[in-house]
Write a structure and sequence with these properties.
Elements (H helix, E strand, L loop, with lengths): L6 H9 L17 H6 L2 H5 L8 E5 L5 H10 L4 E6 L2 H14 L5 E5 L11 E7 L8 H11 E12 L5 H14 L1 E5 L6 E8 L3
Parallel strand pairs: 1-2, 1-4, 2-3, 4-5
Antiparallel strand pairs: 5-7, 6-7
Helix pairs in contact: 6-7
Bound molecules: S-adenosylmethionine (SAM).
S-adenosylmethionine binds next to helix 4 and strand 2.
Length: 200
Amino acid sequence: MIKGQSIIDKIRSVLFRQDHVCPWWLAYSFDNPLRRYLHDSLLILSPYVKPGMTVADIGCGMGYFSLAMATLVGESGSVISIDIQQEMLDRLKRRAEKKGVAGNIRTVLAAKDDIGIREQVDFVLAFWMVHETGDIPRFLKQVRSVLRDQGKMLIAEPRLHVSSRAFHETLQQAREAGFSIVDAPRVRISRTALLQKREK
Ligand SMILES: C[S@@+](CC[C@H](N)C(=O)[O-])C[C@H]1O[C@@H](n2cnc3c(N)ncnc32)[C@H](O)[C@@H]1O
């Protein structure tokens, strides 16, 4: 944060910079009754996340979606929650314990340029985080390398941060990285794409 900025300016500078990483303290605003109204996590994820799957929530933050994923994969499945901020992962772990789903969530501290996992997964969620990765083509290639054949990835980007043009550029980068765009599910205040790993 820059000394002398008002709190509103600080929040605005965080919100409107394209590649700025969301600080852990701002993530508290990502889990509240309004968020639950806007983003019904079970409704958004249930078409893709099924019992027994291994799924990854990349840029999981404090785990708003990881907790729902853990419920959907059930005891026979597993969730890998990945973030570059340890504070996010620590809070996620505490919330998962409270909810009784910590047993099937594994947290991974990634680097900005490395998603931090090598094992194969059935589904990847990247919710409101792709624009923070900096090098989107590299990020997409790494995700493709850990997705099983025909595996899917749901990308949602915040409309306020990410212009239609920037999002279409990301979709083009996804095609070049070896994905097909198979759907664009409706998610409030977001631009979305469901990607499927394509045979190269
Ligand atoms: C705006 S928050 C969204 C959190 C969560 N997905 C949600 O919807 O509540 C973005 C998160 O992505 C993480 N992030 C940013 N760049 C990342 C990267 N290259 N790899 C993994 N996580 C990243 C940030 O640390 C932050 O927790």
